[in-house]
Design goal:
Oligomer: heterodimer
CATH architecture of the largest domain in chain B: 3-Layer(aba) Sandwich
CATH topology of the largest domain in chain B: Rossmann fold
Helix content of chain B: 25-40%
Strand content of chain A: under 5%
Order of helices and strands of chain A: HHHHHHEHHHHEHHHH
CATH superfamily of the largest domain in chain B: P-loop containing nucleotide triphosphate hydrolases
Distance between the termini of chain A: 22 Å
Largest interface: A-B, 32 and 37 residues
Strand order of the largest sheet of chain B: 6-7-8-3-9-10
Number of helices of chain B: 10
Order of helices and strands of chain B: HEEEHEEHEHHHEHEHEEHH
Radius of gyration of chain A: 19 Å
Number of domains of chain B: 2
Number of helices of chain A: 14
Shape of chain B: globular
Number of strands of chain A: 2
Strand content of chain B: 15-25%
Largest sheet of chain A: 2 strands, antiparallel
Chain lengths: 316, 261
């Protein structure tokens, strides 16, 4: 868990990985391209979950920020006719951070199952609000996201532009995540897991560390939600539903918490297994996913990322 | 501050660093600390002795705000700190080590030290600059050398022997450059060879820094060698207080603390 993020080959490997993802659309179908972009954007939300997992806190309600980010874009395009991503993305991120700051003041007092359940409850409140306030949110129909523009231009191939937008922003989020994990706050968050008494006796505050991490986590997750809104072109209350939160925790465990890249790898694996499971066994796709996670946890408790580090360590 | 008691306290010649005034703490029917008053001046080195359960650790918990007294008050540098929690008390300049080391067990020794350095320099909320900043690592390295932990810097704390964890626990409190340092059995669990070498470096350094030091100790060798003043506890009360040799020579102390008949 405490493996430092300072492995010298890591930035190079990351640059190569992002370069490979960048040329993929040349070879792959639009559908696969879309799926990768979707997985990367959701990977940002999973990274938000992982930042808290490092402190031993399971947020079982991160769909809250996913939905807030997505609906911020939904309202902006649908109600105000502003499809500009350079407005929507920062706005979604800021609103998510502000909501996280407010709710974090409440959540920072809780640990373990209480933290998990309270975050779940808060996300379900948003879900209910989105469903019930039809005039405001479109109810269960949700809102369509129209008129995507980037820097004032409506691209001829929005899918491709969005793909690269997601790629750049995911890289930025991973960078922020890496800096966070290597920072005093990132380490203090790990310290929360091990010993809160010592934190207080160092004159620092475990609750404040949790609040700070929660705001960073919420902001990142909101950005992920906003990207998904542009990609899918539609937002609905399901984004805030507990199953959606569950998926993020599922992917966090699947990918592992050992690196900022783990959530992206987990997310890509998850989207592909889910989609192919849906395609080949429409009635038992959840079962397929469940078996997949069980196999990964059984043979590779550190998640898929652990598999990669093991492969890298072997040739010596 | 405005109470006549505070004024009376300030009028005394030696300004008390810590002034424990008629403090009691009960756990149910048990009076773990029973009407204890203790005044410790700046730069003093006080050793506390007493049998298990005589109230020594409870007194440290009361002074550092981990426990609240049932009655009485605790004054630190003229400020009433009764009721403040450990974080506030620490921020005022008090640090403490524990009988059972309180560490980040899944992290490395160096991680532990650097977290303490970051906290002490007010960087706990910093989520952007690396904790492994070169000046901080240099400082950490000096501390590890001072405490003889340099070879274990990269070791995970849970893999450390008990003695190493004990020393690290003391190191974390020293990093805070406190005005008052409270140590709960700093050498228990540390090998006979290492305990003197650690104390020989630590205690003169604290003395030079005019750090007021209060430590609980069972080891009478350590007590005689490093404490200037001894306070003996029995049944939650102070039964003797004075120069170490005098206190250890008193028959009631020898009876209660050393088990002599």
């Amino acid at each position: 868990m405490s493996e430092p993020e300072t492995h010298p080959s890591l930035p190079l490997a990351a640059i190569v990985a992002f370069a490979v993802i960048a040329i993929l659309p040349l070879f792959l179908s639009d559908w696969i391209t879309f799926l990768i972009a979707l997985a990367l954007a959701k990977g940002a939300v999973v990274l938000g979950v992982v930042l808290l997992l490092r402190g031993g806190l399971i947020s079982f309600g991160h769909a809250l920020y996913f939905a807030i980010g997505a609906y911020a874009v939904g309202f902006l395009t649908n109600r105000f006719g502003i499809g500009e991503a350079l407005v929507g993305l920062p706005l979604a991120t800021i609103i998510s951070a502000l909501v996280a700051a407010a709710l974090g003041l409440l959540l920072m007092r809780f640990r373990g199952i209480y933290f998990a359940m309270l975050s779940l409850a808060l996300s379900m409140i948003l879900y209910t609000v989105l469903i019930k306030f039809y005039d405001f949110s479109g109810g269960t129909d949700g809102l369509s996201v129209r008129g995507f523009t980037l820097a004032g231009a409506a691209p001829a191939h929005p899918g491709l532009v969005q793909y690269y937008l997601v790629l750049v922003l995911t890289a930025a989020v991973v960078y922020v995540g890496a800096r966070f994990l290597a920072s005093p706050l990132g380490y203090l968050m790990q310290a929360v897991r091990y010993n809160e008494i010592r934190i207080e006796y160092l004159g620092a505050s475990a609750s404040h560390a949790i609040l700070g991490s929660y705001v960073v986590s919420g902001a990142i997750s909101g950005l992920g939600g906003a990207l998904v809104a542009y990609l899918v072109g539609h937002v609905s209350p399901e984004l805030a539903f507990w199953v959606s939160s569950g998926d993020f925790v599922f992917v966090a465990v699947l990918g592992g918490t050992g690196s900022v890249f783990a959530p992206l790898i987990g997310s890509i694996a998850f989207e592909f297994v889910k989609n192919y499971a849906l395609k080949f066994s429409p009635n038992t796709w959840q079962l397929t996913l469940g078996v997949f996670l069980l196999v990964v946890i059984y043979f590779q408790p550190q998640g898929l990322w652990g598999l990669l580090t093991r492969l890298r360590a072997r040739p010596r | 501050m405005g109470s006549p008691y505070a004024l009376a306290g300030q009028a005394t010649v030696t300004a008390a660093m810590i002034d424990v005034q008629n403090v009691s703490r009960a756990f149910g029917m048990l009076r773990a600390v029973d009407d204890v008053s203790l005044s410790v001046g700046e730069g003093e080195t006080v050793g506390i002795i007493g049998t298990n359960g005589s109230g020594k650790t409870t007194l440290l918990n009361l002074i550092t705000g981990y426990l609240q007294p049932t009655s009485g008050r605790i004054v630190f540098q003229g400020t009433d700190i009764t009721g403040l929690g450990p974080r506030r008390v620490t921020a005022l300049g008090m640090a403490r080590s524990f009988q059972i080391p309180q560490l980040y067990t899944g992290l490395t020794v160096l991680d532990n030290i650097l977290i303490a350095i970051a906290a002490h320099s007010g960087r706990s909320a910093d989520f952007w600059t690396p904790m492994y900043r070169s000046d901080c690592v240099t400082k950490a390295d000096e501390l590890l050398a001072l405490f003889g932990l340099r070879d274990q810097a990269a070791a995970t704390v849970s893999d450390l022997p008990e003695g190493g964890r004990k020393v690290l626990d003391v190191a974390l409190s020293v990093i805070l450059e406190p005005k008052v340092l409270l140590m709960d059995e700093p050498t228990s669990g540390v090998s006979a060879r290492d305990k003197f070498s650690v104390m020989d470096t630590l205690m003169p350094a604290l003395k030079r820094g005019r750090v007021t030091t209060i430590f609980v100790e069972h080891d009478l060798d350590i007590m005689e060698r490093y404490a200037e003043r001894a306070v003996a506890f029995d049944g939650g009360k102070i039964i003797a207080d004075g120069p170490v040799a005098d206190v250890l020579a008193r028959p009631e102390v020898r009876r209660a603390v050393l088990g002599e008949s």
